[in-house]
Amino acid sequence: EPFPGLWAFGSFVLAGYLLDLTNNPLQVGAIGSTSFVIHMAAGVLFGGFWGALVAAVSTLLYQVFHRPVAIKVAFNVAQRALCVSAAMALYQILGGDVPPAYLSTETNLRSIGAQQDLALFFVIAIVYFAINTVALNGVIAVSSGRRFREVWNLNARGVLGYDIAASFLAIVLAYVYRASERGLGFGALGFVAVLVPILVIRHIYGLYRKLQNSGRELLDLMVKAIEARDPYTSGHSVRVATLAKTIALETKMSSEEVEEVYSAALLHDVGKIHEEFAPLLRKETKLTPEETALLQTHAVKSAELVGIISSFRGSVQDAVRSHHERWDGGGYPDGLSGDNIPLGARIIMISDTTDAMTTDRPYRKRLPIEVVIAELQKYRGTQFDPKLVDLVINSVTIRRIMADLQSTGQPASVGQPAEGGSKRVVARSPGALKSRASWPRIRAF
User: Fold this and answer.
1) Measuring CA to CA, how many Å separate 67 from each of 72, 76, 304, 407?
2) 237 with 223: CB under 8 angstroms?
3) How far is CA 336 from the centre of its chain?
4) Tens digits of per-residue pLDDT, 29-83?
5) Residues pairing with 32 in the sheet
6) Which of 64, 167, 304, 400 is deepest in the core (most CB within 10 A)?
């Protein structure tokens, strides 16, 4: 593979470095960056060796200046170089040209060669992301003591389509580079033409992320306002949302559905902000039947408030309204049973109860995990969805979070016994999971 030229090589390295500067943190020990577009563009233009070298040098520059931990520098440089070289090697083995036929002015884009090279770009994208995701999630799983599946679910599940779609920007950038090279030489104008589109897209993505974070902060503010009414409910909604999101991930829900469950769990008690509930939440003695009936209306009022936000109408609102429905039909407000209860509501119900048992209460200390499991099994098929109970009991990830809940020293939240003094407990859970952005995904740790 001939040397592409010092200016071209240096420009691609600089572009990769600049894109790494715009990275964003992911959920478990990794960062996301759009520099993979530069790596792929360099690979299809100059071949696997020079593409891998561009990836290695740009990554080394960023890692040394901004994250100077020797083992991380070595790993990230190596895995990115491997991603490009392996992807391009398979691409060429399957008959792909470097540079691809679709970048040549002499080749009709409708020709068999151009169409084959374009189709084979899928190979580059899939191999790159497969190696990148497996390597990073694997090393994070080993270093953190988590299961690979748990880390992969949190960092990368359900986003391969977004990654592949984003990777096609590499074709656009490679085409612009070749056009500039043929017409003007790879001067400053050509370099800007290659870099600006991806920087603009990355900036738009950053604005979207800020908007998402602002929305989440607003939700957190609403939750804190609710919990301020009850001295025992500090952290309740956030902990329930954390556990609910983990369960939703284990049920193989889509990323969008998981976020809906998280939002519903975070807001499931928002209706308690109404003044009429304040004395009930602070009452230290047993509620009267009338007071219990009034308190039970919080599910409907919560759903009404959630419905004010247009994006929450539908699944989120339904889950909030039905989070006190029981599998056997003995819950409220609508007496739904079985699969007629929205799945998100069933998840919130079991998360709510599990948290209550694993946190300190005014009338008892937190319960051991063995007792919590026994209680879930006892009410399997009556209060709880039996399949969800089995999932919670058998999932190592969920059991780990339950153990964290049981061992934490956080103040407990109070829940009045529901349904007129029965022993049903109301759940909590520590530490919220950050919202997963769809693109870009894992690139380094």
Assistant:
1) 8, 11, 47, 33
2) yes
3) 31
4) 666 777 898 999 999 999 999 999 999 999 999 988 887 788 888 999 999 999 9
5) 24, 442
6) 167
